[in-house]
Amino acid sequence: MSKEKYIGTKFNIVFVGDFHPTIREKESIKEMIKSGKATAKMGMKDENGGNISIKTKEGLIIKRTGAHPDSLKISDFVLVVQADKDTVWVKGKYEPSSESRLHYFVHQARPEIKCVFHAHDFLVLKSKQRFKEVAFLKPYSYGTMESARAVAQVAKTHEYIVQENHGVIALGKNIKNALDIITKYHEKFKLSA
Ligand SMILES: [Zn+2]
């Protein structure tokens, strides 16, 4: 969040059980933590740090809300099993990321995509450069259904989305692919600055 103060999640949360990630899911969580740190090294660093989600058979794995990006652990991740316009159903001990609905509806809009990668790329946000293959969205209040709908709509036809005053979103067939897209556009906007 660049401009707006963080006030927590903006939906109801229903806890529906424990989350015990499989060995493979634990590996994916570690990769998400590492990829988040890689974007921090590129300057995408603030107290929130964005968020990454991966799709599993049961739902999507995403970090809990309020977890600091520098000290993320496997236990900071939860499983979102369902969402609608008011409510998010979650397995795990913690409230899911305030952007859980956005991730959920983007995964719904693009079933072939496995990873939704959201970062606060300040270099891209400051740039006046426009690329025609990139979706540029007007500012929305973070974590709202309005912003989730707007992103899910353009996600049908774009792999990279810029949310004015907020951040960027990449859609990847896996975590590495999504990080590569984030990196590719970071470099592309940097070169054209
Ligand atoms: Zn954000």
Produce a short descriptive summary.
The chain is α+β, with helices and mostly antiparallel strands and 193 residues long. It is 32% helix and 22% strand. The model has no long low-confidence stretch (mean pLDDT 94).
Describe the structure.
This protein has helices at residues 23-41, 100-109, 122-126, 145-155, 175-191; strands spanning 12-15, 51-55, 60-63, 77-83, 87-91, 115-119, 135-137, 160-163, 167-172. The protein has 193 residues and is of the alpha+beta class. It has one domain (12-191): L-fuculose-1-phosphate Aldolase, CATH 3.40.225. A 9-stranded mixed β-sheet has the order 1-5-4-3-2-6-9-8-7, sandwiched between helices. α1 runs parallel beside α5 (175-191) and α2 packs parallel to α4. The longest helix has 19 residues, at 23-41. The radius of gyration is 15 Å and the shape is globular. The two termini are 22 Å apart. The structure holds zinc ion. Zinc ion (ZN) binds next to loops. Residues 30-193 form the Class II aldolase/adducin N-terminal domain. One of its GO terms (biological process) is pentose catabolic process. This is Class II aldolase/adducin N-terminal domain-containing protein. It holds the Pfam family Aldolase_II.
